[in-house]
Specification:
Structural class: mainly beta
Helix content: under 10%
Order of helices and strands: EEEEEEEEEEE
Number of strands: 11
């Protein structure tokens, strides 16, 4: 099992920034694709961003392109999501996730999940 712990959420005003972190234990993340998903209030979980094991291949949801950046530090077994120019519609519970295969936007295909961290953006 790969155990993921995500953190860094909080309350921020619109236009502000936050950095989320996800640290893995049990296995190294060096051979895993890592990603971030979010669940908006009263909505289904949706894809946000993902990174291949080396970080040389990334993918972003259209709603966050140009504002969010995913990065990873395999030596620290940690993946990050830098969020800038935050909007009220970004308010959600954010989850980190891992899978042994390639990047996919379908949350049903990801194997391991963090507990989730709340991000609230006020107007």
């Amino acid at each position: 099992q790969v155990h993921l712990v995500d953190s860094g959420g909080g309350l921020v005003q619109a236009g502000g920034s936050l950095r989320l972190s996800c640290t893995a234990s049990g296995r190294t993340i060096s051979s895993y694709t890592m990603g971030w998903f979010r669940q908006l209030p009263r909505k289904e979980r949706e894809f946000v961003a993902a990174s291949s094991w080396s970080g040389d291949s990334t993918n972003y949801a259209d709603s966050v392109k140009g504002r969010f950046t995913i990065s990873r530090d395999n030596a620290k077994n940690t993946v990050y999501l830098q969020m800038s120019t935050l909007k009220p519609e970004d308010t959600a519970v954010y989850f980190c996730a891992a899978r042994p295969g390639r990047i996919t936007v379908d949350d049903r295909t990801w194997n391991y999940w963090g507990q989730g961290t709340q991000v609230t953006v006020s107007s």
